[in-house]
Write a structure and sequence with these properties.
Elements: H1 3-16, H2 20-39, H3 52-83, H4 85-91, H5 95-125, H6 134-161, H7 164-169, H8 171-179, H9 192-198, H10 202-214, H11 230-258, H12 261-275
Helix pairs in contact: 1-5, 2-3, 2-5, 3-5, 3-6, 3-10, 4-5, 6-10, 6-11, 10-11
Length: 276
Amino acid sequence: MSKPGIQRGLIELRQAFTNAPDLIGQFLTPAITLGVLYLLRNRDYAGGELSIAELALPGLLGAIIAFNGMYAVINVLVLDREDGTLLRAKAVPRGMSAYVVGKMVSSSGTLVAQVVIVLGVGMLIIGGSSLSGAGALATFVWVLALGMLAVLPLGAILGSLLDTRTAFLLTMPLMGLVAISGIFYPITALPGWLQVVGQVFPMYWLGLGMRSALLPGEAVAVEIDQSWRHLETAAVLGVWAVIGLLVAPIVLRRMAEHESGAAMAQRREKAMQRAF
């Protein structure tokens, strides 16, 4: 991992947390969701001891890793392609490698901070979830780390292929995926075929892994097969991580090869035509 890339990533990370508009963008949606969960803190799920809010908080963390992690990379790649940042990086010796490493460092740092802050605030206002014991902490760490490896390369792939308009449209199917991934309500309450679809993607497994780390053991009763399925979680996230880490460098390299001033001007012209 290149030293210039790490330095670039740390600079971008500092800028992200000292810029008020960026901070609002990062935490607005989680803050609204936490507000809704706070209102549901006294509503028990199926007559159990845990409230809907307590069950949903770990799932919210999984959704943040999947959704924000992917979009953090998608948005920055799309914008940097359109404003010429990527073209300038390409013109510098080893500039592309430093650029990619920098984006991974800044995206990872931002994502970890979001998860930790939302977890802390959620535990304070909702309660229920806690990292009690070394085993729970270890599970939290490996699910977070493997989850980022699964979603950040995927964001790089999509960011290399999409433009601003199509990246925005991607939000709708992703929100649909949230709905069928057991994030805010146990997936076992959904029809069987939707459960199968939800389990194909990383979001469900991130939510499941976070629930296994943060909820008491009896909460497993609402999960599929009444099991936290750690091996399956590691396997599915691992497969997505391997695919992403193999495909992302190829896609990024081809994108950089086709990046030019003419291509950038053509994208700007299309954007102006859509605007008018």
